[in-house]
Design goal:
homodimer, 481 residues, alpha/beta, Aspartate Aminotransferase, domain 2, seven-stranded mixed sheet, three-stranded antiparallel sheet, glycine:2-oxoglutarate aminotransferase activity (chains A, B), transferase (chains A, B)
Chain lengths: 481, 481
């Protein structure tokens, strides 16, 4: 027999080219160690519930009732569920056509898209059209669908921040496009310099690449910075001048841990700018139920909103969404609950506020503990996590460590992270998985371990790191002893 | 401003090429009419709950408890949930790492993949490896991932039955591959003739296409036939000789309405054939929670199982699955419940059997009512629905109707289906959406409307059809009156 279609040699090259470090070598090794009985702290993915964060009670009550609608006719239902959860379950079931077991419209349930539009209008102060909002199985699926429409071949470039969340690099590889990197400046708190951006576009054009879109992640992943309004204006002006679609990854909009730069949406800034920019720049914004204080990653719920996208294109995106029939319906209900939360006076309101504020305030404290912890370590410097869920410390590896990594056949930060994993059980992602400047090394960890475990985790990290640095530092007198 | 990246003119051509009739013109028109207040019977998609099928109680109880795990500590839980549902919820929660809100492994929860493997072993009599089973957001997503690995460009061909479920044609277009049709023979009860298959491959090769894979849908969609063991052996021998991956779409394996040809899996036949074929033919089989007597379409749960796929390729598929992090977790639990059902003696067993058998037996009766109904109509002939969820009658349109369609700028069967929709509210899919021989016309309808509504629907269809035929038949004497 010759080579078969699913032999490695004959697979689609774009598939093989994809790199996805968040679930890469480190994660696979961590899974192995876990199987062998080692206690692993998975900080490789922003997966709050996996690290003990409790789900918010009210939305879970509502979705449980929607899954078991026969409970609504049970005289005992009031013993297990509050009246507002029962009312909400009836509301969402009335928006479906056949409950949670029926495919919805491929764009999502119309009534929930309406609630999303109302949320956006309250948030931004501008009306939003439910027909331009599509619900998706997590934000990632929306990003993939959008890029699929934009990328026609390797001559099409997408501007992506570096360091970046590898969803973008992976999807661009898979679709056979070209990633055009623009570097975030670590010494300027991971700020974005428009001059750098201009240079990136110019360099790409020299190579014959048509730059078609720009991705921003705000708050940043893995870098944790929050973009200022002024910066967003510059970006939108740039997109206008360069004729770029802006993809606004705003999944961390609820995760902000400082007060100087609250979250502001790309869409609000775009609308504030007025014509011609507000009428011309094509923008797609993404949101999710996986982040914030919800952390409902496993439910896979998200949406995207389209601004200045012509109807014919909206129809094409609808058609593509139709191939997989519909996003999962339970997560659509979570999205409804997220954008249309309880109001003061509702029976469950106080519990909801207590739970959600408890999570957010704890995340704020953990962001601080982690940054301080990293900065107390030898050869480690770390910007404060202004938002999102990650810490992205720079690890200044001594030349001898880099040499040892080369001998072991590993990228230096992979080498460091593997050693960290073996020594402490802390499963991180090497900075090389997100992109970084030549010769500079990082790791990404989430700020999600339980607050009470944080001090022990950080001191275990510090112990490992400082010993590692000592071992590999060019300490001549030490090595001659 | 010039053309922008998301203007229709500049979209990815593969996106524009995609056709997806199940949610196409007919569906859009039906949605409009519904908005205007007309009562629509949606038989365009196999979406049982949307047409009133009740979900099975036990799995819904289990998943509701998994969504609201705090209920498990409530002393009143026993008033609303039976003990076996409580035990099952605890079991599935123990298999997750963080409940339904945490991303699972991108391949799905290991413990549930093990239950799937045990199900396959019981079904086929051969062991199955959980490491070669991936859980997905519905079977469609698995098909799309697989084709993404196989298709490298337009020189790669995939053999697809015609008529076919348009997931295949749409995905092949989107990925830029070539669909190589093989025709099912309507007069032989939609059977598959290996000689035809050989001819299709030869013709594709003449055009320079490398045929890499073959799709079978068993039981058939839209055609409803069940493949015999002898036919499956021929197909597998053909795949062996021609070096083709076999994609076995077996999502309707529980939906069989005759006793002569029970469902038999491609994998069992492959294993039965022994070496070299059983060791050589690469097979990927798909299953779902959306069909059968479950009909849990909106939950989006599926799996695929890989046979004779090398580990390096499995790793690549794992990597691609990782980009979207994980399939939704609630649907993974539905899959667990489907493959590991209640056993005699369990508290909820009798109710479960009553509900599931009630659905299956009613579907069997409905398949018969529908076939008989179509065959009683003027110029309509219809094979019996042996399996799956669809009826696919041939509509013999008179020349005058074809002419009228041309005048209206419509494909003839689209013209007929639109008239049917306007007259009766029955929303079907024209046969041209699935592919059919030149000059032959069909429509697809599901057999899913409630059994008690069936007689009225079929007589409303008959009334429309017979009047339509009369109107367009070349009845000279009549037209001179």
């Amino acid at each position: 027999m010759g080579i078969k279609a699913l032999d490695y040699e004959s697979l689609n090259e774009n598939v093989k080219k994809v790199q996805y470090a968040v679930r890469g070598e480190l994660y696979l090794r961590a899974s192995e160690l876990q199987k062998e009985g080692k206690k692993i702290i998975f900080t490789n993915v922003g997966n709050p519930h996996a690290l003990g964060q409790k789900p918010l009670t009210f939305p879970r009550q509502v979705v449980a009732l929607c899954q078991a609608p026969f409970l609504l006719d049970d005289p005992n239902v009031g013993l297990l569920f509050p009246a507002d959860a029962i009312a909400r379950a009836k509301h969402y079931l009335s928006l479906t056509s056949g409950g949670l077991g029926a495919y919805s419209d491929s764009r999502g349930i119309p009534g929930i898209r309406k609630e999303v539009a109302e949320f956006i209008e309250r948030r931004d102060g501008y009306p939003s059209d439910p027909e331009l909002i599509f619900l998706t199985d997590g934000a990632s699926k929306g990003v993939m669908q959008t890029l699929n429409c934009i990328i026609r071949g390797e001559g099409d470039g997408i501007l992506v921040p570096v360091p970046q969340y590898p969803l973008y690099s992976a999807t661009i590889s898979l679709l056979g496009g070209s990633l055009v990197p623009y570097y975030l400046e670590e010494t300027a708190n991971w700020g974005l310099d428009i001059n750098d951006l201009r240079q990136s576009v110019a360099q790409a054009r020299m190579k014959g690449i048509t730059v078609r879109a720009m991705v921003i992640i705000n708050p940043g992943n893995p870098t944790g910075q929050c973009l200022s309004e002024a910066n967003l204006r510059e970006i939108l002006t740039f997109c206008y001048r360069e004729n770029l679609v802006l993809l606004g990854d705003e999944v961390y909009q609820q995760n902000v841990y400082q007060d100087e730069r609250p979250f502001i949406s790309s869409r609000k800034v775009l609308m504030d700018m007025g014509p011609p920019i507000s009428k011309e720049v094509q923008l797609i914004s993404f949101h999710t139920v996986s982040k914030g204080y919800w952390g409902e990653c496993g439910q896979r719920g998200g949406y995207f909103e389209m601004t200045n996208i012509p109807p014919q294109t909206v129809d094409e995106i609808y058609k593509i969404a139709s191939i997989a029939l519909s996003p999962n319906v339970p997560a659509q209900i979570f999205m409804g609950l997220m954008v249309n939360p309880l109001k003061p006076g509702d029976i469950s309101y106080e519990q909801f506020v207590r739970e959600s504020q408890g999570i957010l305030q704890s995340l704020r404290r953990r962001a601080r503990i982690m940054t301080d912890g990293f900065n107390s370590c030898k050869n480690v410097v770390c910007n404060f996590t202004e938002g999102a869920m990650y810490s992205f410390p720079q690890i200044r590896l001594p030349p001898k460590a880099i040499e040892a990594a080369k001998k072991a056949g590993k990228v230096p930060d992979v080498f460091y992270c593997l050693k960290l994993l073996e020594a402490t059980g802390i499963s991180t992602v090497p900075g090389s998985g997100f992109g970084q400047k030549e010769g500079v090394f990082h790791l990404r960890t989430t700020i999600l371990p339980a607050e009470e475990d944080m001090p022990a985790i950080m001191s275990s990290f510090k112990k490992f790191n400082d010993e590692f640095m000592e071992q590999y530092e060019d300490n001549w007198s030490h090595s001659r002893m």
